[in-house]
Amino acid sequence: MAAKKTVEKPSASDVAKQVDGFIDKFEPGMAKRIRETRTALRRRFPTAIEIVYDNYNFFVIGYCATEKPSDCIVSLAANSKGVGLSFYRGADVPDPHGILQGSGSQNRFVRLPNAATLKEPRVAEAIDAAVSIAEKPLPGAKGYTIVKSISAKQRPRR
């Protein structure tokens, strides 16, 4: 009988260092905006699971009810040009103020010139609406962070 292979889960400290490294790839001002936005989203979603992707086009942190990307409510998405808040089911989010951009069949987004944009009433209303239509509720326990993927090739972050 073959021995079962055990995969060790990285410690929270190791994951935090890894995520910091992803953010450090950005120009200092952009890195600061990403960190401030992440802090604001973590405060807004303390029980969410942060799913991190350091992909070819974007650095993304999804705020999700489970470890499945399709259970994300919103995501911070950053590239060298800026930071945005992506709404996974944005096409279904009520948008009476017309702030959501994008025309795809599912996703919508808002550009974030700074973290304070998240507190603007129209943006906060859209976030609340996204939470209300989520298929799965956020967990009750404290959230945690996992790194889902890292692309070997990436567009420049600076």
Topology of helices and strands:
Blueprint: H1 12-24, H2 28-44, E1 49-54, E2 59-64, E3 72-79, E4 82-87, E5 108-111, H3 121-133, E6 145-150
Parallel strand pairs: 1-6
Antiparallel strand pairs: 1-2, 2-3, 3-4, 4-5
How would you describe this protein?
The chain has helices at 12-24, 28-44, 121-133, and strands at residues 49-54, 59-64, 72-79, 82-87, 108-111, 145-150. The protein is of the alpha+beta class. It has a single domain, classed as Aspartate Aminotransferase, domain 1 (Alpha-Beta Complex). A six-stranded mixed sheet has the order 5-4-3-2-1-6. 29% of the residues are buried.
Features:
single chain, alpha+beta, six-stranded mixed beta sheet, 3 helices, 27% helix, 23% strand
Number of domains: 1
Work out the number of β strands: 6
List the helices and strands in order: HHEEEEEHE
Catalogue the unreliable spans: none
* Amount of beta strand: 15-25%
User: What's the oligomerization state?
Assistant: single chain
Class inferred from helices and paired strands: alpha+beta
The CATH class, by name, is Alpha Beta
Radius of gyration: 16 Å
The tally of helices reads 3
| Distance between the first and last residues' Cα | 51 Å
**What sort of overall outline do the alpha carbons produce when their principal axes are compared?**
globular
Helical content (DSSP H or I, runs of 4+): 25-40%
Spatial sequence of strands, sheet with the most strands? 5-4-3-2-1-6
Largest sheet: 6 strands, mixed
CATH architecture grouping:
Alpha-Beta Complex
Mean pLDDT: 90
Instruction: Return the CATH topology.
Output: Aspartate Aminotransferase, domain 1
